[in-house]
Structures are given as structure tokens and as C-alpha cells.
Amino acid sequence: MKYHFDATEDFLRRQNEIYILLEIAKEETEDDKHKLFLKLVAITLVTKFQVYVENVLKEYLYQLRSNHITYSNISIYMQLNSVKIKANDNDLIKLSKHNKLNEDTKNKIENYLKSISFIIDSDKVIDDNFNFITTFPLGRTGKDELLKLFKQIDGDENIFINKDTNEEILDLNQLDSLLLTRHLIIHQDIFNQTIQTIAGYRDFLLDIVIFCDNYLYTKLQICGVALEERCLEYPPTAS
């Protein structure tokens, strides 16, 4: 299985735990124990996927900040999204809320304006002032939250839709279905899924992970950044 990001490798290697739990569930003849292992798989899958999304976005952000990339190489949407994140919490906005009209306040405002000066000079190099949201909040649903995170890259409403055919590459409703399963397990101890369904969720998340890896790598390539293509056996062997 080919990939590019460290976060992807970590996710793939940790699938060994999922593989083992499913094998145990498959061999378990006692119904309560069989369901117990399937519940563990469902909860663990969601946790590992949440960690993956946050880590791969942080890794992508690090690559943008550390490879001498200019703002002209990223989308205007992404540039303005970075400004928007602190639009209601910066030293210029705070000026209307206090009377500290002194040198210190002036310097803080000056530093803030410098941090967004790429708005008028896109040849500036991306640094630590550039940012986007990497936190992936999950509850009963997660589809919309995932789409919002990746919308920050180019402004696309759904990166999982083929622009040429307008067809879904991946059906994210499966993600909400898995999250609802986890929610019912944790909050109501309700579980009625089969091993085939849970294994299907595992394969679905794997498809999303590989898609996101390739998507973000393609965006880095546009910026002139090349990452080594790596390959890992799946299912992975224990390390």
C-alpha cells in the first residue's frame, strides 16, 4: 500500500491491532464476547481515524511552513482562511476594547499587520504566522466536520467528489454511520452490527486515509515539495 505522510504510516501500522481484534471476534463463539470485540473495533477505529486526520493536517501544515514556499503557491481561499481564523481575536481588533494607546499597543498592531502582509505581497514566504484548523471534533456525526477541514485547502465543498463527473469518489455517509455506532455503544450500550459491517467500516476508513494522503501530497507537489513514496504491507505485521 503506497503513501507519503508519516501520519499515514502510523495509521497503517496500527491497523494491526484492528486486524487482531477482528480475528479474535471471528473465532469467538460466545455471543457476548464476540460483540465485545466488535465494539472495541468500532471505538478504536474512530479514535485512530480522528488522530490520523489531525496528524496528517498538522504534517501538511508543517511542510508548507518549512519548505520556503511563497503564498503565491497556495490558493487565495487558503490565504484568507488563515486571516479569518484570527479575524475576531487580534491586536488590531482589540484596540476598540481598551484605551492602552501606547508604544506597546502600536508594536503589537504592527506585528499583526506584518503577519498578514502577504495579502498585498504574495511573494512572501509562508512562516509560522500561517495557519489553518487541524482539530477534528467528533460526536454523533463527523462527515461535515471532515469536509470543513479539507475545504480550507482550496475552498472545495467536497474533495471526495470527482470534479469532472460530479460523482462521489467515497460515500461519507458511511463515516456518520460508524460514528453513530460508536455513539450508541458509549452512551446507550446499544450494538447490533455484524463482523462484516465492522470490517467494511475498517476498509472504508482505509480508503479515506489513502485518498487524503494522495490529495495532500498532490497539493504539496503543486508547491514544489516532493515527499518520498513509501509502501507498507497490508494487513501490517506486528512491529
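(ticket continues) Second input and output from the same batch:
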Amino acid sequence: MNSRDSFFEEVRVAQDRLINILRCNRDKYNNVDDLVIDSTYEAIYSVLEIIDGFNTTGKKYYLTDCTSEEAINSNSCLHNECENRLMHTIL
């Protein structure tokens, strides 16, 4: 399996996990806005975890700003910043 296939397999696993989490918690939501907020938060968080190396392979990926050629995640884990930067509710 090449790197791209491996990455998308991790994304698929994250999607399956998110679907199961939302199915288990759907009764906790009083409105669709909160469900959408948490769904998108969890999806973004999961992809950032994969990029940061918190996945089944332990492989870390780097996100590079193509203009400056700086890796934006070289000294930190992006998923750790989600709680302070993105909207989420109860999930």
C-alpha cells in the first residue's frame, strides 16, 4: 500500500468511528445545528490526528505552506489546537 492509500485508509477508519459516535449520541442533540457543529469538529479533529501521527500506523504527515515552504506542524500537534480554535458542543 502506498502512502496515499495508507492515508485514505486512515481517513476511512476515522469516518467509520465518527459515524458510530454520532449514531450513539444523536439523541443528545436538540437541534441540527449542534449536530452539524460537532460532526464537522470531530471530522476535522480526526484528520488532524492522522496528520499528527495519532493513527494506526504511527506515520506523521507534514502540512507545508507552499508559499513559505514552512511545515505548519513541525513543532506542534495541530489536533491539540482544535478545542481553542473551532466550535464544538457536547460530543
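Agent notes: Helices lie at 3-25, 32-52, 82-85. Residues 11 and 29 are 25 Å apart (CA to CA). Closing as not reproducible unless the customer responds.
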